[in-house]
Design a protein that fits this description.
single chain; mainly alpha; globular; 16 helices
């Protein structure tokens, strides 16, 4: 796992960092997030989040998605206006585009309809049509080609996990390339961390599957700091003991060993702890006066905040008990 890295201090981002500092003051506090999670009703949860600008127009899933779409579009606009490097803009935008493609494909192939987010480069009407049963041809390449390939692969296995890994593999390949071109150690280290966390989750899924040998061949992403060949071997043979011993010797022992050993709700716990680890890494850029790192950190942290708000308020709308919500809450440690 990447730890602290040397920050660039690039003066080209002085204006952008100043704008970030203003917006950071309106981000959700730990206290507000916990109050929202522990609230008895949807209305009380909204009250806790109101100071950070989260107030749905109506008490409904549609009202919540309208609010989040507006926030996502505002974040994208802010980044477009603030980042002078088009390569970094593409790096940040691609995350949203591939997430939307994943949501559209999952919606088309399963009964689970996932929300699409504003602010990306792919047209939402084309993605909605794909989610409703259309074809990916209307999307620009390489998204159209990727969509067609993943639809063909779906016919072989009908596995939502492999579908999502296929999208992530394409996304991370592009992000790795852009990150290498930009040459920012902070970005490279974050990419390594994200890749490792995706591969750890894949390992846990494979070890719990009845057919790990079938999943393992396409489950892992290249790159990262972990030995992918080892992970594939443990996954293919179902070797929990060997996998746990290996993970215990890595920087991820604390957050992943229990899940690898088969602890109850191990994948959920790993997701929460992994999200916390990413936020912990991003915090090192919080006080940097210059450079691209504070802008990257703000964008990723704000995107995470939007997911937290969706999670908490959706749970409230569906009557999920507060203790269940707080058990799955990330970013509050």
């Amino acid at each position: 796992m990447a730890g602290r890295v040397k920050l660039s201090g690039d003066p080209a981002y002085t204006y952008a960092v100043g704008r970030v500092r203003v917006r950071e003051r309106r981000m959700l506090t730990r206290r507000a997030l916990i109050e929202a999670a522990e609230a008895r009703t949807f209305e009380e949860a909204v009250d806790a989040l109101r100071e950070a600008g989260y107030e749905p127009a109506s008490r409904s899933g549609a009202g919540l998605e309208e609010l989040l779409a507006r926030q996502s579009a505002e974040l994208a606009k802010f980044i477009r206006e603030s980042v002078p490097d088009p390569r970094l803009l593409e790096y940040l935008r691609l995350r949203l585009d591939y997430a939307n493609l994943k949501a559209a494909l999952v919606g088309r192939l399963t009964e689970k309809k996932l929300p699409l987010s504003e602010g990306g480069g792919l047209p939402l009407d084309k993605l909605t049509a794909l989610a409703d049963g259309g074809e990916p041809d209307a999307l620009p390449d390489p998204f159209a080609e990727l969509g067609k390939r993943l639809l063909e692969e779906w016919e072989k296995a009908h596995d939502p996990f492999l579908l999502q890994q296929g999208v992530d593999r394409a996304l991370f390949a592009r992000l790795d390339g852009i990150s290498a071109e930009i040459g920012l150690p902070f970005l490279t280290a974050y990419q390594e961390l994200e890749t490792d966390l995706v591969n750890l989750a894949a390992l846990v899924r494979c070890l719990a599957a009845p057919n790990p040998e079938e999943l393992s061949a396409a489950a892992f992403l290249p790159g990262g700091g972990l030995d992918v060949t080892r992970l594939e071997g443990y996954a293919r043979t179902g070797d929990r003991g060997g996998a746990a011993e290996y993970i215990a010797r890595t920087p991820y022992a604390e957050i992943a060993r229990g899940a690898v050993e088969g602890a109850p709700d191990g994948l959920g716990v790993l997701a929460v702890r992994g999200a916390d680890r990413k936020l912990e890494f991003l915090r090192q850029a919080r006080h940097a006066p210059f450079g691209a790192e504070p802008v990257i950190s703000f964008y990723l942290a704000k995107s995470n905040e939007l997911e937290l708000v969706r999670f908490v308020l959706t749970c409230k709308l569906n009557g999920v008990p507060p203790e269940t919500i707080t058990a799955r809450l990330w970013g509050v440690t």
